[in-house]
Amino acid sequence: MHLSPLQSRLAASFIASCLLVVLYLTLFSPNLALAAELEDAPPILFDDVDSDLGSPLDPMYEPEFAAFDRSILGRRQVRDTNVLKNNEAFPLNVVQGVTERFVFELSQLSEREPEVRSLELRDEDHTWEEQEEDEEEEDEEEDKDDLNDESLDTEPVDSNSDSAEQKLGKRKQGARQIFLSANTCLQPQAFNATKTTQPPPQLTLYVSTSTDNVEPGPDADSNSQVAMVFNEGAIMYNFTTTTDVYVGVHAPNVTEIFDGPYNMKIAISTDGYIYSYDVDNDADLIWVDSDSQGALLITHNLTDSNDEKKQQQIMEAPPYVLFAQDKSDPSINGVKYSFCGLEQYAQIATTKDGKYSNMVQTGMTTRGQGNFPKQQFFFSGLKPSTSYLGILAKTNATDPGSPNPVGGGGHVFKATNFQTKSGKLFSRDPGSNQVGTNAQELIQADHGNCNIILNLTFCDQVAYSVPSNSKFGNASVLAKFYDDYAAEAYGYFKKALAQIPCEAPVTQRYSLTRNCSDCEAAYKDWLCSVTIPRCEDFSNDASYLHPRAMSQPFPNGEMLDNATMSLYAEKYGDGKTLGKAFMQSRSSRIDEFIKPGPYKEVLPCDYLCYRLVQSCPSSMGFGCPLPGQNGFNSSYYIKNETNGEVVCNYPGSAHIFSGSSRDAVSVALTVVVLVLVSLLLAC
Ligand SMILES: *[C@@H]1O[C@H](CO)[C@@H](O)[C@H](O)[C@H]1NC(C)=O
Ligand SMILES: *[C@@H]1O[C@H](CO)[C@@H](O)[C@H](O)[C@H]1NC(C)=O
Ligand SMILES: *[C@@H]1O[C@H](CO)[C@@H](O)[C@H](O)[C@H]1NC(C)=O
Ligand SMILES: *[C@@H]1O[C@H](CO)[C@@H](O)[C@H](O)[C@H]1NC(C)=O
Ligand SMILES: *[C@@H]1O[C@H](CO)[C@@H](O)[C@H](O)[C@H]1NC(C)=O
Ligand SMILES: *[C@@H]1O[C@H](CO)[C@@H](O)[C@H](O)[C@H]1NC(C)=O
Ligand SMILES: *[C@@H]1O[C@H](CO)[C@@H](O)[C@H](O)[C@H]1NC(C)=O
Ligand SMILES: *[C@@H]1O[C@H](CO)[C@@H](O)[C@H](O)[C@H]1NC(C)=O
Ligand SMILES: *[C@@H]1O[C@H](CO)[C@@H](O)[C@H](O)[C@H]1NC(C)=O
Ligand SMILES: *[C@@H]1O[C@H](CO)[C@@H](O)[C@H](O)[C@H]1NC(C)=O
Ligand SMILES: *[C@@H]1O[C@H](CO)[C@@H](O)[C@H](O)[C@H]1NC(C)=O
User: Fold this and answer.
1) Is 201 a member of any domain?
2) Residues 6+ away with beta carbon under 8 Å from 626
3) Is 194 in the pocket of ligand 2 (CB under 6 A)?
4) How far is CA 55 from the centre of its chain?
5) Confidence band (pLDDT; 50, 70, 90) for 132?
């Protein structure tokens, strides 16, 4: 069969609409009507979740401190110096105003453990000048006669020796690189939380390697010690030494405002940090989408290797845990970089026995561009219209005595912000002339008309909010509705494609560079994003969003009022009326069965259409409207570098902050091709 080329720039969406009308007529199914009567499962409310813990939203809520030894509190007056063992965490309460002391004896290290000297030999091309620059910075703080060296990764470490010769001389005595790290697990709590918005001040770490100062602390000689204040409940410090290490941890005295001791874990290792954090690099966690009570987040690709064995191995064990917190709740302030602090104070934790962990489903997925393994976190039971922090963390070794203790105390990554949708249906301040802003009169409804769907069989890349209505069914029912719809349309496309000689010798094919697999893939990407609209609250006024189904009633039966209609008519129409593209959904099937009522759509990215035209035989008659042409504005949006905003929908779209220039180039190319296509079609 030869499909006659359609005249002019026929929108590809028109083809789909035709297919869908056919579908609708042939496949109208009474099952769907049945499904429409299904009641949604009741939403999980925050407070129902776990009665034992009390709600973290409750002002009386107090985290449980059971894991820590209160008995230490008893013996304040005589403080022994605690002995730190290599690679062993030391948990301890530190009472306000008190300095706890620790010693790390080098003699405990076995002969076989690598000395710094052996590392140095591999690092000869590093110049001493580089080190000396570093030394100057450190000189004010520390004046010990320890020995300095390069770490394995050739980064200069703290350094204060006088000359290279001296270093070489001392190295023979067996200098050790020391990684000292600590986490604040508990911090004093304000007597009156309404008076204090600040968290308690941080602990301070003092380190001495001089036998003249075996009790470092606020009262000791500052020339013989290094002092460092914890950062959000965490500290990391590395240096090299030939002598025993003396450590003091001082808790500030703020007993007038804050009650209780600090509790912390400290560890010294010659292998690496037991506790660590990294908030300089980009967050490893990406916010994909949310609805009024849920959110979907994924990690970056955990590997970019195509080796199946390696991928399978990674897929077996999700490596991360996640902490989440309502941003308006200050409980984690002061311990945001501390793994054990987050365990204690974060509202939601996916750790073993973590708080409210049943609000988060986590697992591995290969969804997204490149289909590489990543871990995903799917929240439910969140509060509507709320900003959250998601903090990814990782522990290396969970078994005690594991051969690799480095990172065993936990590594904390940079936090990612995410928001839930409003959960309120459209509402408008009657006194205001603005469209859809700041509700005074809230039209109460259960929870919005956007719902996240995922785990689709055919549109396997879809994982975002779609127009919904709780009367239609739960998320699984909704997902199946959209997925079946797309899969059926794809069936028609495959029949049409079967008429094209795909398997023919290259010279007889429709293109030298594209084959039928490319066409199928491009069609699927386009089809899924066109038939499964990405949904935003109707009250969201972002300029890239397209209002839909404005003539339809909301799930609670309310309609948009005339004043709102005229405001939108002025903004998008001729001032009096609005076109079909605004009054209805893109596909009538959505209005017919789901009946979401007014919502806003994140339009598919324009490149999905261009790629379809490029990849498929021109005899199939696909074309795309170009920017400025009729129909473009209500069909596509131009993909652009964005600052974490999803301005258009594409497979794997998410709130990604770092842009790439590759997309700009490919769009430019497709535009050239398109001009050609539309010239041909016009003939
Ligand atoms: C902390 O300060 C209070 C008064 O400000 C004082 O009574 C108390 O003894 C101090 N505690 C310590 C351990 O210094
Ligand atoms: C806490 O401080 C607020 C404001 O100063 C005051 O109104 C309230 O009574 C205080 N509560 C307690 C328990 O002291
Ligand atoms: C040691 O500390 C310095 C900063 O003082 C840092 O630049 C370096 O990366 C650290 N080395 C390691 C191995 O973490
Ligand atoms: C995964 O890798 C692919 C291919 O390199 C890339 O396009 C995609 O953006 C990556 N995904 C994430 C979440 O980093
Ligand atoms: C876990 O151990 C590996 C191997 O020693 C190390 O490379 C990695 O940095 C550690 N991870 C963390 C989070 O510390
Ligand atoms: C999605 O599928 C995965 C694996 O099949 C499963 O673990 C997860 O619970 C599903 N999530 C939802 C929301 O259905
Ligand atoms: C959703 O509804 C369907 C049909 O009533 C039911 O079979 C399924 O178990 C429900 N799924 C969830 C996750 O509640
Ligand atoms: C189509 O071309 C791609 C490369 O562009 C190739 O990987 C694929 O195997 C080809 N498919 C067929 C059916 O020839
Ligand atoms: C809104 O407009 C419709 C038709 O344009 C009209 O029938 C209706 O009375 C109007 N409602 C109000 C409250 O003005
Ligand atoms: C499409 O939108 C742009 C800006 O969003 C506007 O300038 C243009 O006039 C619109 N085109 C049509 C045909 O409505
Ligand atoms: C892309 O984004 C930049 C800045 O974010 C903006 O100036 C530009 O107009 C945008 N381009 C298009 C085509 O929307």
Assistant:
1) yes
2) 9, 632, 671, 674, 678
3) yes
4) 24
5) very low
* Ligand lying nearest the CA atom of residue 406: 5
Of 369, 390, 420, at which residue does a domain stop? Answer: 420
In the reported structure, the alpha carbon of residue 257 is separated from the centroid of ligand 7 by a whole-number distance in angstroms of 51
Our measurement of the distance from residue 559's CA atom to the centroid of its chain's CA atoms, rounded to an integer in Å, reads 36
Q: Number of structural domains, the chain? A: 3
pLDDT tens track for 62-88: 333 333 333 333 333 335 688 999 888
Mean of pLDDT over the chain: 75
From residue 483, alpha-carbon distances to 127, 460, 503, 514 in Å are: 62, 9, 29, 27
CB within 6 Å of ligand 3 — which residues?
151, 155, 157-158, 238
Per 3-state DSSP, what percentage of the chain is helix, strand, and coil (rounded to 5)?
30, 20, 50
Instruction: Copy the structure tokens of residue 341.
Output: 């602090």
Burial of 553 per CB tally in 10 Å (0-12, 13-18, 19+): middle
Query: Is 623 inside a domain boundary?
Result: yes
pLDDT at 482 over 80: yes
Compute the distance between CA of residue 442 and CA of residue 424 in angstroms, rounded to an integer: 7
Ligand nearest to the CA of 375: 4
The reply to whether 601 and 659 lie within a common domain is yes
Closest-CA residue, ligand 2 atom 12, reads: 192
Q: Tell me which residue range forms the domain holding 208.
A: 81-110+173-273
Tell me if 345 is assigned to some domain: yes
* DSSP secondary structure of 269-291: ESSS-SEEEE-SSPPSEEEEEE-
Write the residue with the smallest CA distance to atom 1 of ligand 6.
455
Nearest CA to ligand 8 atom 9: 517
